[in-house]
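Design a sequence for this backbone.
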């Protein structure tokens, strides 16, 4: 291998490593929901599958897609339904 080719290889930047998962704030931003609503869904057992990596909690792209498919396939169980349910429950409890 010639010296000129060796230098050229050393100068070329590496392609970026593809992202394979989202943090909870990134997931919420991507899906247009608040973190509070995410944790509410999680508490109700309706959030996406999560994985722990050290101290971080991540949601894979596959898990996010599965979560969306599940919600799309459940009539009346979409995000709007959950919000309406929350509003209805708040009104039933009365003022805080």
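Sequence:
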């Amino acid at each position: 291998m010639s010296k000129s080719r060796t230098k050229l290889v050393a100068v070329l930047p590496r392609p970026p490593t593809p992202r394979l998962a989202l943090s909870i704030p990134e997931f919420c931003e991507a899906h247009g929901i608040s973190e509070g609503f995410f944790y509410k869904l999680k508490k109700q057992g309706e959030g996406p599958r999560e994985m722990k990596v050290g101290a971080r909690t991540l949601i894979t792209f596959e898990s996010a897609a599965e979560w969306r498919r599940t919600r799309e396939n459940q009539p009346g169980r979409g995000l709007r339904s959950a919000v309406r349910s929350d509003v209805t429950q708040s009104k039933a409890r009365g003022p805080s």
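Helices lie at 3-11, 24-31, 35-43, 61-72, 79-93.
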